Amino acid sequence: METDTRTNKSAPPQGSATRQAHPTTLKRAGSGETERPPSAQQLNTAATNEVVDLGEEVESQEDDWDPGEEIEEFDWNALHERYHTAINQASDEEGKLAEEWASLMDFFRVWAEAGHSQETDRSYSRFRTRMAYTQHAEGEFEKTRNHYTQVVQAFERAMSLLQDAGLRN
User: Fold this and answer.
1) pLDDT digit string (tens) for 58-117?
2) Is the pTM of this model over 0.90?
3) Which of 23, 75, 93, 168 is the most exposed place for a label (fewest CB within 10 A)?
4) CA dihedral 5, 6, 12, 13 (to 10 degrees)
């Protein structure tokens, strides 16, 4: 007989409360409730994000429409002019934003160059300090080396004197 190695889900123990997931609905903030930085605010404040329901109005116009009547001609030239006006306004706003960006980048460049200059001066000062420390350490090492050399030479002279005196075997 084979044993089933799969795990079976069991019911929660009695007395324990089971939670049911309730989806929470979050209210989305409208553009009027959020604050934009001054450079990003649009000049046209008349535009809103409200949903306009034109369904009833369109239906009533369709009911009154007579198929025998000629359809009004659309003023394509006016649409053309409105398009170019809107594009020109957007281009002007974009130009203003580009000018503001350029001035901010100039400010940042000056700040970065000042920081770079100061950091270069500080790093040169650190370099000189390290160089002076290293030169001092090398000088001290040379003094110690000379001292040890002199001590060894003194021992060698003492040994040769002892050897000359015949005290050494």
Assistant:
1) 566 666 777 778 888 889 999 999 999 999 999 999 999 999 999 999 999 998 888 888
2) no
3) 23
4) -10
The four Cα atoms 97, 103, 106, 107 give a dihedral, to 10 degrees, of -120
User: Who contacts 12 (Cβ-Cβ below 8 Å, separation ≥6)?
Assistant: 18
Q: How many CB atoms lie within 10 A of CB 8?
A: 5
Q: How far apart are CA 108 and CA 135, in angstroms?
A: 40
Give the closest residue to 47 by CA, choosing from 83, 84, 86: 86
* 92-to-38, 47, 78, 97, 143 alpha-carbon distances in Å: 16, 18, 21, 9, 76
Output 117 or 28, whichever has higher pLDDT.
Answer: 117
* Token pair in block for residue 32: 């009027």
CA distance 84 to 102: 26
pLDDT for position 2: 46
